[in-house]
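#lab-general

N.A. 3:47 PM
ok so I finally got the sequence cleaned up, no stray characters, all 87 residues accounted for. can someone with queue access submit it? mine expired

B.Y. 3:52 PM
send it over

N.A. 3:53 PM
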Amino acid sequence: MDAHGQPFTHPALVTNMSTGGLVLQGVRRKIRTGEILDVRMANEKAQFRVVWVGSQSTGELGLQRMTAHTFVANSVLAHCSQAAAAC
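B.Y. 4:20 PM
back already:
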């Protein structure tokens, strides 16, 4: 649901992903902090709470994971972050 209570589907780009949440870019709807969004990636779906909203020009949202399920296993995310830290 957007800030006007209207359901919507909109493609977006994941610019950051962690075990705790996502940063999306390109959401061209008015969204409020605290809203719960169902996010789909391919055939998978998970719920996230909007914790911050960036500028409308970028359509950037910071989302906190609400469900135990994530699109990428926590072990993979932890491994990738450890490898990146070693660079």
